[in-house]
Amino acid sequence: MRTIEALPAQSAAPGEVKRPIAWARWLPAIGAGAVLAYLVLVPLLLMLVSSLRPGGFPLDPGWTFANYATVYGAAGFPRLVGTTIAFAIGSTALALALGIALAWLIERTDLPLRGTIRALVILPMATPPILLAIGWAMLLSPRTGFFNLLIRDVFGLAQSPFNVFSLGGMIFVEGLSLVPTTFLFLSPAFRNMDPSLEEAAITSGAGIGMLLRRILLPMLWPSILAAGAFLLIVCLVVFDIPGTLGMPARIFVLSTQIYYLAVDSPTGVPLYGQVSALAAFFLCILFVLGWAYHRLTRQAQRYRTITGKGFRPRLMRLGGWRWVAFAGVSAYFLLAVVAPLAILFWTSLMPYQTRVTWAALDLVTLDNHIDFFANRRVLEAAGNSLTVALVAATAVALISVVLAWLVVRAKIPGARLLDGLAFAPVAMPGVMLGVALVYVYLTLDLGFAVYGTIWIIAIAYVTHYVSFGTRLANGVMVQLHPELEEAGAASGASTVRVLRRITLPLIWPAVVAIWIWVVAHALRELSTALMLQGRGNVVVPTLLWDYWSGGEPNRAAAVGVWLVVALVIFLSLWQAVARSRLERSS
Amino acid sequence: MTRMNLDRRGFLAVAAGAALAGVAQPARAAVTDDTLNQLAASAARAGSILWYESSPRDQIDRVIAAFTQRFPAVRLEHVRDTGGNAMAGRVIQEVQGNTRTCDVGTNSASVIWQLVGRNMVERVDWAARGADARLAPTPFTLLTTASTYVILSNSRMVSDADAPRTWEDLANPRWREKFGTWIRSEGLTSLAAVWGEDRVARYIEQLNAQRPFLFKSTFPLAQQLAAGEVAVALGIYHTAQPPIRRGAPIRVTVPDPAAISSLFSFLPTAGRNKDGGLLLALWLATPGGAQAYEQATGRGNYLIEGTETARLLAGRTVAEFTPDQTERMLPILTRFNNMLQNGGGREVD
């Protein structure tokens, strides 16, 4: 931390935005609280009520603690928790290590083809996790996995070196799948760093290891912690990869148990009470993480890297390491982006699931892609998906920025409570969020229909993804020294003008990252969309589910391919607009 | 139709005596055209029929087309149930929220049994409507279709001579680490209706010794069999059909006894178009409706003459607990699920 204490920010007065009169200070808290209460608190309360109902449905009669006793008293529970924690910590550590390295190389160094890599690194986000898991099973399964067969052929091995149906395999695939999210979390923070600190360290003879340990990691601590906390909770709740790769080898985690209780229990009815009781465990972990985050980042001024002192973003020259780094990034890229997308494409061209061989090329067909476009629901689903994704992304970006500003900068009364509420939805299993929202919109008369429409899906996404948005926005807001806003205010600008002309442009990379992340996830999200589906709200992932659950993974893969294509077009358009803006402004 | 207050005991009492297990033989009584036409006339006046069912939409589009061809004035809408217990959750929430729920649903006896326990299912005199007693084992359920458990093998990896054909063949140690099955034990539980619980429990221990690959659905199981990840499998007939139709090297054998899991149609008490719901349930139990459903979804009603499923199970002993045996069946299912998931035959609490 000593390096950072040398920052001019440290000596600046810890001034915040000008305080309005006492009663008026509560207005933003009340406003933000009302929004969060509507989006988060009501579903959370319904989940809590569900955990205390004998039947598990919030409107059922009676109260009980039996659900907690059943879930936490089960003989296998400690083992389940142990496996889950090992899986979550392993996956988070892998995603963080790769995400930090990528964000630094792409944002802070003269790595070749940085722009292209930046655009492509997030492509796997558009691939539904279920397809990603199947893809990795086809790449690394012990009997038919492409890489295993290749290595066995090349080295003449009798046994396959890798088995993706293992805890290590689950961690590897989950970790890789979360790298794009980690990258989006951290790249705005890396981009906003004053390079003079790195340059000073290098001038003083520091190597890359010391630079990382003494400058970069301490300075980015809030963003890394926020990313780590978010990823950890995601890994506790995520089902697709443990379900696809863990179940065949009898490796069960808590999310597998939730799936079993909600869908497959032999009772004939979802055991929502027990699901909610288990979700309470996730909430406890989340609150511990939230508390730890606040403890570790309470001296916010230490992490302020965007100050009134002007700096031009300069890239660090890697010198001889440039091509070594490029080779490393290429290896990651081949493994994490090209291989799964290639296997997805291969699957979409096959009539049924088959290993990658020259002989299988005879089976190549475009039928799956033709079927996708011949499906009469494609246009309706694409329109619905796009509407839901754009509305949810815009709402999440807006809410996240406002909340981050209120919590980190304005420090309104109840800021920590608001922040905790915004973080909480990530610990809610998708199925329970769906259950809660169904009740909300069946009992709430808004004057127009929400249940069974695309708007209930959009609301669910906003609720769920605001946790990601606020983590990212908070991390970047912490980096922002208030002296810039104070200078604006001192020059006579109103709060709104300061926000619009100073704060927002500085945190714009984070806003864009939030927006893109939500669009990509909303385009592919399945479990909540399925839970909330009705007669008129079909979206692309539910079409994909139709194929997948109807025993047509190859047609599902074709949908996945077109989702990736849609994201590529989307990112290209965004980059073109950003480039033209940059040219106009310069 | 009259609404009744029924508890679990009442449900079991009215259902007593109904039994599905036995050698497969087609049903005899038939629903008449007059009955269907009368129901269609009143169903058309009541608006659309809302049907909750778990098949993919493009499959059910074909069922709807056949239904509309037969009853042009009646509009049928389908909402896809996502499987497992989801439908019970949905119906309960919609009834509690006082909004429209389905007019007819199709699901397993254990799901319907939960709704019956909440007084959410209509009691129907199916016989008065012309339905055979074997199709309607309880006043709440009319048999629509059944999943048939079959032995699958990859025909490129396993020769005809070596292919397993009986339940015992699957337990042959030669298939150790080459055998896959569903993580749920519905098929094995059905088998217990004929073999008895203890014999099936010993059989599961034998299967566990094979170190099976467990899949969360039998659809990916069939695909992984086609890909060669497993050589033999205990799967479900209709879920193996998509890769077979596309040329995958999968061989299918129906063992004897033939374990099945039936799906029944039921009418929620809160349905708006009650005659419409009844019309669809009865039509699906006619040869025309049953064949339309089977051709679209790949699974059919083994009690309806002319269906592929009836041919598949002809002469075999059909093994399944009847809906009135649900209470007895559930602990067995739980026990077998735990045995499969825990492996090695050791059971989990």
Description:
The complex is a heterodimer of chains A (586) and B (349). Chain A contains 26 helices and no strands. Chain A is mostly helical and 586 residues long. Chain A is globular, with a radius of gyration of 24 Å. Chain B folds into 2 domains: 24-146 and 261-305, Periplasmic binding protein-like II (D-Maltodextrin-Binding Protein, domain 2); 147-259 and 330-342, Periplasmic binding protein-like II (D-Maltodextrin-Binding Protein, domain 2), CATH 3.40.190.10. In chain B, α2 runs antiparallel to α11 (274-284) and α4 (86-96) runs parallel beside α5. Helix content of chain B is 42%, strand content 16%. Chain B is globular, with a radius of gyration of 20 Å. Chains A and B meet through α7, α14, α20 and α25 of A and α3, β3, α4, α5 and β7 of B.
Coarse structural class of chain A: mainly alpha
Reading off the top of the CATH hierarchy, the class of chain A is best stated as Mainly Alpha
Tell me the distance between the termini of chain A.
36 Å
| Succession of helices and strands of chain B | HEHEHEHEHEHEHHEHEHEEHHHEH
Low-confidence stretches of chain A: 1-16
Number of strands of chain A: 0
CATH top-level class of the largest domain in chain B: Alpha Beta
What does the average pLDDT of chain B come to? Answer: 89
Parts with pLDDT < 50 across at least 5 consecutive residues of chain B: 1-21, 344-349
Shape of chain A: globular
Please give the alpha-carbon distance between the first and last residues of chain B: 43 Å
Map the helices and strands:
The complex is a heterodimer of chains A (586) and B (349).
Chain A: H1 2-5, H2 8-11, H3 26-51, H4 66-73, H5 77-108, H6 114-120, H7 129-140, H8 146-155, H9 167-191, H10 195-203, H11 208-219, H12 221-237, H13 240-246, H14 254-264, H15 272-296, H16 321-348, H17 367-374, H18 378-409, H19 415-423, H20 430-443, H21 454-479, H22 483-490, H23 495-524, H24 527-531, H25 540-549, H26 553-585
Chain B: H1 8-15, E1 22-23, H2 33-45, E2 49-53, H3 57-70, E3 76-80, H4 86-96, E4 104-107, H5 109-117, E5 142-154, H6 167-170, E6 179-182, H7 186-195, H8 197-208, E7 213-215, H9 218-227, E8 232-236, H10 237-245, E9 250-253, E10 258-266, H11 274-284, H12 287-297, H13 308-313, E11 317-319, H14 326-342
Parallel strand pairs in B: 2-3, 2-4, 6-7, 6-8, 10-11
Antiparallel strand pairs in B: 1-11, 4-10, 5-8, 5-9, 5-10
Helix pairs in contact in B: 2-11, 3-12, 4-5, 7-8, 7-14, 8-14
